[in-house]
Description:
There is one protein chain. Helix 3 packs antiparallel against helix 6. The protein folds into 3 domains: 149 residues, no CATH class; 94 residues, Roll (Nuclear Transport Factor 2, Chain: A); 134 residues, 2-Layer Sandwich (TATA-Binding Protein). Strand 1 and strand 2 form a beta hairpin. It has 9 helices and 27 strands. It is an alpha+beta fold.
Amino acid sequence: MRREHIKSVILTTLVIVSLVLSYSLWSYQPTYDVIQNQDYVQKVSIGAKKDFKDIVIPNLLVVHESNKNKNYLTTKQSNISTIYRALQKTEITNFENLTNKTSQMAYQTITKGKNKVEIIFPTVVPIETLSKVLKLDAKRLQNVLFDRIIINLSTKPDSSAKVYFSNEVQNILYVATFDNSSIISSVEKLRDNYESFIESEQYKLESGKIIYLPKKTLKSSTMEFLTTDVDVDKLKDAIFSDPSNVRKESTDSGDTFTDGTRLMSVSPLNRSISFVNPTTPENNNNQSPNLLVQRSVDFINAHGGWTDGYILSGVKPENNEVAFRLFVNNLPVYNNSTITTSWGVDDIETFKRPLYKFRIQVDKNESQMELMSGSQIWDIISNNKSINKSLIKDISLGYETIFDDNKTSINQPYYNRAIQLKPVWIINYGDSYKKIDQDMLSRTGVNIVGLE
C-alpha cells in the first residue's frame, strides 16, 4: 500500500512538471533585438545636416520708400539677411488676426504702403515652422500659413512696433508687436545699399496677388559648375529599412534597387533618383503643414541629404507634399533641381532628388546677357493667347539647368561633368514652371516652354 502511494505521488509530480514545461514552451516568446532604421540611417551621410534657419530663408526683399514713391527689390542674400537676422534676435508677441477686420484696400496699404519692407519667402511657411527660426510667441496659432513678413521702414525706436505676417494669395493678415531697436541699424544699412537694389513696378495677377518685376532690363551671366554624383549606395542604405535585403538590377535606362516592395530608381539621363514606398497606408486626410515640414527635414537630415543650397520652396498639405528647391545666388534653379517628399500615414511614400551635386564653379568670363524688363514680360503675357492668365501664380527670375548631353558619358560617373545655369524668366504656371524666351516678344500664339 505504501509503495502504491509513493508511485502515485511521483506520477502526480511528473504530470505537474510536464504541464509546467508545456505551458512554458507554449507561452515562450524569444527576445529579438529590433533593428531601428533611424539608428542605422544616422551612420549614413551623403552631404550635410541643416537647421531650420538654414532651410527657411526669404529670397526676396521689397522696399516701399515714402519720399520717392518707388519700389525697390533685391534678391541678394547679403541685403536680405541684414534685416532678417536682426529680426531673428527680437521677441515677437501679441499676435492678432486682422483677416476679417481688413478690407482689400486696407490690406494693400498695410502690406505695400509707403515706408514698408516686405520680406518674402519662396512658399507659404507654417507659423510653427517660422517659430523655429524666429522668436514668436504664437502658441495659439496652428496651421496658419504665411509667405511674407512686413515691417515699417523706421529708424525711430519703438518697444511696441508693429510687424505683420501675411498670406498674399489668401489675404490672411496677422499683426504682432516687437521691439524694433534691434533692426534700426539694419534699416539704415538697407538705405545705404539702395544702389544694389532694382527699381521695380507692381503687377496684379488674376488671383489678386501682387508681384514685382524690374522697371528696366537686367544684365546677368550664365554660370558653369563641375559636378560629382551622390553616392547611390549610401542613399540606398539610408532609405531602405534593411539594406542587406535589397537587390540591384541594371538596364539601359538606369539602375533600380528593391527589397521586394519598395523601389529606388536611378536615372542617369534625368540626373535624378526616385523612391517609392507602397507599404505605407495612403493618407487620405491632409496632414498638418508643420508636421509635413518637420518630417521632411528630419528624413533628409537623417542621411545628411543637404548637398547644396536647398531651401524650403513648396508646402502642399492637400498632397501631403513638401519641396526644397536648389537656390544659387539666392535665385531658384529649375529643371531637376528639387528634393521632394510625400507622406503616408506613418512613413514616407515618395522621395525624389537630383543625382548631381556641385563641386566647383568654372570661371569662364562669359559676357553678360540682357534679360527682359517687367513691361516686356507683361506684354508677352497680355498678347499671347496660348497663355491662360488665370493659371499664373508667380513670375520670377531664376536659372535653367543645361546638362551635358554627351550620350557616351550619360552612364559614366558624374565627377567633373559640367552643368550650366542660364538666367531666365520663369512663370509658375498651374502646377508647372515655364520659361519666357526673348524671341517671344515678336511672336504671338507660341506655347511657353516647360521646365518642370
